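Mods, move this if it's the wrong board.
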Amino acid sequence: MGELSGHPRPIVPVKRYRTRSSVPKSEKDGFELRQDPKDDSDDGEEARNGLRKKKPGLKTHATSLAPGPADEESNTHSFLSLPAEIRSEIYQYSLIAPDPLAFQPAGTRKLPTAERGFWRFLYKDWEAQQREYAQHEPRLNRLAPALLAINSHIHREAADVLYGGQAFTFQNYAIAYYCLSRMGAANRARMRAIRILGQAAHGAGSRTRIAPALKLLADCVQLRSLFLGHRFMRPRDPHESARELYRDGYQFFREFGAAQGRRDAVLDVLEFDRTHLEDCGFLFGAPTASASTLRSEGQQCEQAVRDHLRALLEHDEPRNGKKTHESNRTDEREE
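Not the wrong board. Structure tokens:
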């Protein structure tokens, strides 16, 4: 043991393994790149001691084309420094579409219940009409709702233009409920024109969305135009149509009347759909009726619905058929 301790252990260099380069063979050039085993240019004291010196890599600096906070702030201040008339003109071009904004089911080529049973013929040309409209649809006028996300001041100015400067069209009551519920009460209060076509009013699930959709309209007290689909136009029983509409839209009618100072103020902005009475009169037992006769019957049906709805609004009868406390107090004072 003493003899062995007198002789130091020899230092064995670390064995290095040479491998081929990862560069693939080039068929065009006709040669193959290999690692030269005699090349020890990267060997040094670190390699012999079991360590390898790491080569310094190239330093890269990421460049971004996005403006910095100072640039964004200066751009915002420069926009707000413009006169109000010019800013309003910019909002008009950026946020108002030439045609009413139409909402339809995403990911589907046809309307819901468009080919179901008795109502199939009403929508048989819907796809062809959509393709024809798409050919004439303007491509250059793209809306820029991202303007509302710049700051609170621009949001207030732009939201009034986006929601109050154009009409919103919904294909049915289910889509109207889905979209209106996500707009928020503040944005619904800015809306001026709403159209609910009601193509799927006879389809699955849409009937249960009529009352919730009309309930969301209670915030739209500044409406100037409200178009409702043919769900409420029944020529055989216009009184029942008026009662059904009054029951589903009771809260909206009451809030709108309170804001306008008249209980029946909603009749000034309410429009009904009579086209199905004029174009499809044979549905109601009049297949040989002339266009003028159907038009006259449609007008009479609408007037009957309006008259009965006005009577319900003036008496302020709630959905259960009982008068409210305010109406009872009015009757007592009159007596």
